[in-house]
Amino acid sequence: LVPGAVMDQATFQNRWESLPQATFMDLFLNRLPTVDELETAAKEENIVCMASGDLGSEFKFYFFGQDSKNAFYFCEVSLKKDDKHFTASIKAEEESHADEFANAFTSTITRFLV
Questions:
Q1: How far apart are CA 49 and CA 25, in angstroms?
Q2: What's the predicted TM-score (pTM) here?
């Protein structure tokens, strides 16, 4: 993923709604990160947080990234506070590369798996 990817919220929402799910992540973290910790970890992998929020029982995040061929990847993350259940729905303009984005996201959360 390339640094400096930019997208406005309207474009993000439009693309998110129009693309099918390409892959899905489902795992349990050993430690519950704060919103800032997860956003910072994602940023280190050139994954940009479009929006995040505390919904009481869970955190919700919307992320995106862009590859060197200018294709965008989108991710909706739900992180349940009680059992640290992490799920991520990933959509991609280049579906064949969705797993690469998932791998980059896995690198993001590795520090919360130990």
A1: 17
A2: 0.94
